[in-house]
User: Fold these one by one.
Assistant:
Number 1:
Amino acid sequence: MHTSPSDDWAIPRDEAIPRLLEEHGRKLYGLSLRICGTPEEAEDLVQEVFLNAWRSWDQFEGRSTPFVWLYTIARHACQRMHRKKSGEPEHVDSLDELLPFGAPRLAVVPAEDDTVDERLARQDAAGQAIASLPIEFRMALVLKDIIGFSVDEVAEILGANPATVKTRLHRARLKVRKALESGLPQQELPPPAYSKQVCLDLLQAKQEALDRGVEMPNADNIICDRCNAVFATLDLTQDVCRSLASITALPASLRERLASWDE
């Protein structure tokens, strides 16, 4: 996404903050909705983030991009504002619970294009699955697969190492993938061609490819039909997550509140 600071951000705050709002206000509001749960709390969070950015713009030293800097402010604001609610999840299912090892029938991605209703149903299912994640897993997934930061940028924003981010991201993806399965046709496939460990190693390679935004190396002579079916649903999962970035609008009421940041 954004990999290095740019000289064109050496501008005063009355130019920089409106530009950040225009480029990332909607995405930041979408993140806030998925963390806070209600529009009112999300608006409060976004307002706090941009007010803090306005007040501290002169402290931005350009060691990271202004976007990473902005979301780092958001992370701190989330930590301050987020209060654990009753029933909020504390863990993510195990791999055995998230993957269809041994199941005779697996979900397959249809060859034909989705209908509007199918796309909306998948977005809704993905949104519910994301909401069911513990907050640290939710943040990693939203920042990487919805907003579009790199793993290293997510690590910088969250104050975690990249390996930890990947662990959270990979497990969160599998949770959303499982949620999308029920809306897909099921097909009986041959038994696994390899041991469970080989399948897990191939799954790790697939997840790493998704992290980098590249195609998994062609290994048709190695990957069995079952793994290919799982990988196709992972691709669908990432596509659905990306689509979530475009369905959230910045409320007009919030724009009005933010218009007074310099007062």
Number 2:
Amino acid sequence: MDVGFIGIGSMGAAMVPNLVAAGHRVSVWNRNADASRALEGVTVLDSPADAFRLDAVITMLSDDQAVRNVVVDSNALASAREDCVHVMTSTISLALVDELQRLHREAGIAYVAAPVFGVPAAAAKAQLNIVVAGDPAAIAKVQPLFDALGQKTWPLGDDAKHANIAKIAGNMMITLAIEAMGEATALAESYGVKAADFLDIVTNTIFASPSYKRYGGFIATDTYEPGFKLTLGLKDVDLALEAAGTKQVVLPSVAIVRENMLQAIDRGLGAKDWAILAKMARRRAGLDESVA
């Protein structure tokens, strides 16, 4: 399949080689062309519009504004092939999803939401979990791409918003897990139990899940880079609160986590992995003087 890939950040750079290895002909576009040229076995495109002239195009961009700039404001859809399928893997707002679905209908091309659960290391091993929603025929066409990128595809019907709200809610749960580990570790440490010992117990017993293990490891070793930036985590928390407000769903715990994130960002920690949120719990407990 001739595939366009837009957005060669850490995730995109980890995903593209798996498409190439699976035998797909991959063309890439990125604002920084050097990132595109660093990938082997790909064709570097001159514009986002060029990607939409292929069988399928995958976008992996950081936020609503990036998607709007690259896909909407560039007018890339105007020259898209009629049988092109656009696969959006970015974590974006539900309002933008609705707008994109409308714009794609007007342009006459298929739109598939396919946000992913996984970090670049998992992406490099084709171990992503891909949550998919959209037209069944379009999904079937691009399923070989999902097979090359992930360990499982999770279908959620034909409304693209279903995939995105699942991703938003899932990321919300990760922030709550980090906050929970931060607070619980602060409690254990206040009585002399080492963070590494406590987290080794809980992440291998009652909370033996990938997110607890990954971020518990960061907290235990006080290591917060590289990773998923706290500022991006705040973006996802804001998406959850925005979606909740539309349906009058109250998320009190998320509001608390958001305030803690803002405090961490105010202290210059926004570029650290979002597990840095746990240090704020230690600070509130008087256990961490490194956070001013």
Number 3:
Amino acid sequence: MHRRLAVDLFAGSGGLTVGLKQAGFSVVGAVESDPLAASTYRKNHPRVKLLEEDIKVLQPAALAESARFVIGELDLLSGCPPCQGFSTLRTLNGKVAIHDPQNDLVFDFLRFVRELKPKAVMMENVPGLYGDTRLASIQKQLCRAGYQSEARVLNAQDFGVPQRRLRMVLIALRGAKPIFARGKTRRRTVRQAIGRMPEPGLGNDPLHDYSVKRSPRVKQIIEAIPLDGGSRTALPKKLKLDCHTKTDGFKDVYGRMRWASQSPTITGGCINPSKGRFLHPEQNRPITLREAAMLQGFPFKYYFSLEHGRYPAAQMIGNAFPPKFAEHHAREIAESLDDL
């Protein structure tokens, strides 16, 4: 069987790499500049040549030499350029308030495509990029380089991930029209993902068994939220926070997940009940780091560094490309390459 070679740019903690491997690709190289994410990646993927460098100054040829592949040999170049900059911040008159330089990292991704000449390309980002002029520019440049491309906004819950997560996926093939994976009709639920997890403190998993101190008032609020999908709207008046009575928004704050449904989008605030619907369906606590990782679709024993504490680990988990989401699209790409 032909060995399919892949590279993961903006690798983070390795969610995309997990999906590529599950789809049968051999991930030979990766790039990640954040030290904490890089240490996490290396622990889980020791055989991948990871370059801990700033992609803006890294030369594609240096990556090819380090990962031991030749220009044009790579089957798939994939990556998730940092996407926070595409969250629109606007002034009072509706104009965009700032320019985030991270937005232009998508063009560094494109630079690697042009120079490494992979047979296929997959890029993931937030839906905001779909309506951005940069996407049109990227697709024009891909066309000039000999690629046919298509971008779609898809929901991870349709691809085996027990989570509602909208993401834009761009796929390009050299000399052929890309085909997207078909969504699954049966969706994976919160119960299927974390329903068998023991209560925290009963095992030896540092991502699950840590203890958290909370004020008596916060404990009261959590205990008063109805089980299995309840929200803060059910709280008695004495437990409602002043900030919540002054706005109709953020209704998921202090909400519980529902066993039979999918979780909300797992973010960097996923272990904090004040950041969204992150309470366990029936236990009086937020989900743990391990449960968040499982809702993202990471393998049960996947390592995340706690060197800088829980919240940086939560950020790594929340920023990840759900492995199962990546796997479905990578499998479709592999089949398309087989037909070329």
Number 4:
Amino acid sequence: MNTMTTTTHPTHLDRLLDLVRPMGSLRMAVVHPCDAVSLAAALDAHAAGLIEPVLIGSRERLQELARQTGLSIGDLAIQDVADSHAAAARGVELALEGRVDALMKGSLHTDELMSAVVGSKLRAGRRMSHCFVMHTPAYPRPFIITDAAINIAPTLQDKVDIVRNAIDLAHAFGVARPRVAILAAVETVNPNMPATLDAAALCKMADRGQIEGGVLDGPLAFDNAVSAAAARIKGIVSDVAGAADILVVPNLESGNMLAKQLEFLGGAASAGIVLGARVPIVLTSRADPRESRIASCAVALVSARGGNRELRS
């Protein structure tokens, strides 16, 4: 009787966890994890060996939530505070004291957590920005989309910091000289399209050494950034076109739509963190799958440790 052997291929999350396993774990303040999804996310990341969570919220509420959902918080550290506002303030305080290495958003609103961060000394010299680390079957390597969650309508100077933050993250993943595509609707400079002017300025700033560590090109339309064939058809000669490691979007709306389209229609795996503060910040959404939440903690670990390891497709 013949038997059939089924081969299970490693997922993107499997490869990411293999990459970060030697890095140990992060002490992570989980701010107001007062619903089942956010509490489970912290416990899953803990079980994966990525974080040592410090749960910040009402002790009574967290214990009751654990009882109702069957989740076990065991002897995990709890910072007992009254409400979400106090939880955000306490998370920032723990980070400033060096008692945690990263923050993770629980069931409070993103604005509430980020307001506490922005109004504190956690804010570093650069503007904070969000990076999605994504991998889709249609593209041969993981890539970063920025900024799709923090900066609504970034100025040129904002985009300088957005690019620098993304380059730093790519470096942490072992990409020595990431290829940065500055996206617009077209690949030519048009005075009536501000995104193309910003793209041209960013590239010239890179030429003059004002942005270091990566190779920039733009404006590039999305197809030219990710498809060498599309770039050839348009006659674009570029080290970035068709091989981008980082996609810099014109504004939050375009970036958010692009990332979600890739995830929900393109089968992309995604993880996201905020950079530019003194510690990485994991922002989760109620719609994020379990794998995305765990992967976001892994990306935070790479960022905090300066991993310098290569994540291959």
